[in-house]
Amino acid sequence: MPDFKPYIVIGLALGGVYAMSGVGLVVLYRTTGVLNLFYGAVGALCSLTAWELINEHAWNDWVAYLVTIVLAGLLTFLYGWVLGPPLADRDPLVKASASIGFALILLGFMQWFWTTEVRTMALPTTKWQYVRGWLNINWTQGLGMIFPIAVALLTTLMLNGTKVGTAMRALADNRENTALLGVPVRRVESVAWFGSGIVFGISGLLLASLVGMEIAALTFTFPVAALAAALIARVESLWVTVAAAFVIGLVQSSLGAMNSLAQYRNTTPFVIAIIVLVWFGWRGQTQKRIA
Predict the structure, then answer these.
(1) What is the pTM of this model?
(2) Structural domain span for residue 196
(3) Which helix (H) or strand (E) holds 177?
């Protein structure tokens, strides 16, 4: 039998990073109607910029991380501010396609500026470790597990306990009626764009530290798991998104312990999402027949 214990920690850490991005996706979709598919590219650009500032320009690590996280927020905000209004009434597929176009622009820039060389970046928290028996966890992995829960909790409190959160929930229900009530729609959407960008930036730094800095993988391969978690939650529930992301991370990591299946572990998000969505569809059809 394969020994799964060493893979539990990395699976939970990866699942946590997927969960953070998934929460950002859900909040942004519920507020703006945009299924953002460039979040992986923003996270990749954030991590590469931090690497550049630290290794090529001798910046302080924490200052570099803070600057690049803000950069991720600003990039996402600018996309929403410039392209949000003209795309507001377009079909969701058009909105998603536009976000893929922006991802490809960022991908092209990163491959031109940094080439396709695989770099490594370990956050300072990686040096802090807790070892007890089989459990060996560094604090970067710990942050990957804790941050998504904190982000989901803070987001829930904001949505339910602040004026901005109330406006976001109103936008999710009916954009036009919310605007007629005098809610500053663009301002509220800007908060969602910027906040989700901050989350994507943090996720990118954590993911780069956990799995390396291969540009295409950070841009498209790994972020698919966050999208799958959001789809499993029907792009509605933050907590279902978090739970689904942790499951995907655990299953994906555990497959690495099985020689015969390790090469298929990157398909985990697709397979789990398809199974759950097919089950939802079958259940819905069954309920209709009963009704």
Answers:
(1) 0.89
(2) 5-290
(3) helix 175-180
